[in-house]
């Protein structure tokens, strides 16, 4: 399969030793479709801890039946998975175009491992949505056009691509770690999904950060130029990831979904929760001299 595309200059700064280590850690591949205990995925348990829900903390939420809160947790996690599907689709497209015969062996091998794992995550998300039996009508989740527009103008080379990748991987990773650790009543299959994602993403984040660091090294002016782009990506991604579309509130049993979504967007408790989740990512970006203006 060699000879696809052409050598991409972004690969020149990769650390072969790091990539060989990451590839070695990826070698005992775990197929999510075979590992997850799908029979344990049911809709009679919460899929997210209640403090993670967009309406948690509002008086209106307190008055909701437990069954409605539970269903809302399921649709909010489906929103997380749908966001993951959108991001991973774009990543798979861009990285696959970078594979070429001139790519050094360590880099070529690592990207094959990462492509396999990201494809596995997407299959895992699709399976979870299907296995749940929950209704997700066509067009109910349609917030990726901004991702598509951005990706068309963002080839897989240089600091812009790797900055966007770091944001799109680190924010969900922090959320998954919270979800996995904070609730004993969480559905066990959902906990498995989060855990498997965390293990794989630790490698992906390490590789993306190494490339971002290489692209920024000794380039103070580049950091300044990246700020508007970073702020745009950060705001849009956070809004997509943490705030489900209006239709999902309705599918959870809440009429007038746009009203509930506006309530969620203004919810002080949810804003504090988002800030808590984002704090480690923001500190990491500030360590690179990038200070998001959110």
Q: Could you please describe the fold and organization of this structure?
A:
This protein has 294 residues and is an all-alpha fold. The protein has a single domain (24-287), classed as Ribonucleotide Reductase, subunit A (Orthogonal Bundle). The chain contains 12 helices and no strands.
How would you summarize the topology of this molecule?
Elements: H1 16-26, H2 32-35, H3 59-62, H4 66-96, H5 105-132, H6 145-152, H7 158-182, H8 188-216, H9 220-242, H10 246-251, H11 257-265, H12 268-287
Helix pairs in contact: 1-5, 1-8, 4-5, 5-8, 7-8, 7-9, 7-12
- CATH-scheme architecture: Orthogonal Bundle
- Residues in β-strands, percent: under 5%
Global geometry: globular
Radius of gyration: 19 Å
Q: Helix coverage percent of residues?
A: 55-70%
CATH topology: Ribonucleotide Reductase, subunit A
- What string, H for helix and E for strand, traces the elements in order? HHHHHHHHHHHH
According to CATH, the homologous superfamily is Ribonucleotide Reductase, subunit A
Number of strands: 0
Structural class: mainly alpha
**In CATH's first tier, which class applies?**
Mainly Alpha
Strand count, sense and closure of the main sheet?
none
Give the rounded overall mean pLDDT.
88
What number of structural domains do the residues give? Answer: 1
Number of helices: 12
Q: Uncertain segments of ≥5 residues (pLDDT<50)?
A: 1-12
End-to-end CA span: 43 Å
Main attributes of the structure:
mainly alpha, 0% strand
């Amino acid at each position: 399969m060699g000879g696809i595309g052409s050598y991409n200059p972004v690969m020149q700064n990769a650390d072969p030793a790091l990539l060989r280590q990451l590839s070695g850690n990826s070698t005992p591949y775990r197929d999510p479709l075979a590992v997850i205990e799908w029979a344990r995925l049911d809709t009679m348990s919460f899929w997210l801890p209640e403090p993670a829900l967009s309406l948690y903390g509002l008086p209106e939420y307190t008055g909701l039946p437990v069954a409605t809160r539970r269903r809302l947790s399921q649709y909010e996690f489906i929103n997380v998975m749908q966001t993951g599907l959108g991001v991973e689709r774009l990543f798979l497209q861009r990285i696959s175009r970078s594979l070429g015969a001139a790519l050094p062996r360590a880099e070529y091998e690592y990207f094959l491992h990462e492509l396999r794992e990201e494809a596995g995550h997407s299959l895992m998300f699709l399976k979870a949505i299907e296995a749940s039996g929950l209704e997700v009508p066509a067009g109910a989740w349609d917030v990726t056009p901004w991702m598509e527009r951005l990706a068309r103008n963002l080839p897989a080379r240089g600091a812009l691509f790797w900055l966007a990748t770091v944001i799109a991987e680190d924010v969900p990773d922090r959320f998954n770690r919270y979800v996995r650790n904070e609730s004993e009543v969480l559905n066990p299959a959902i906990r498995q999904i989060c855990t498997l994602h965390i293990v794989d993403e630790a490698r992906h984040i390490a590789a993306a950060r190494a490339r971002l660091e290489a692209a920024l090294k000794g380039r103070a002016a580049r950091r300044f130029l990246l700020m508007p782009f970073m702020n745009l990506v950060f705001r849009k991604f956070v809004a997509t990831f943490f705030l489900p579309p209006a239709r999902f509130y309705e599918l959870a049993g809440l009429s007038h979904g746009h009203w509930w979504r506006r309530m969620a967007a203004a919810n002080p408790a949810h804003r504090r929760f988002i800030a808590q989740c984002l704090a480690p990512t923001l500190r990491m970006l500030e360590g690179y001299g990038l200070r998001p203006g959110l």
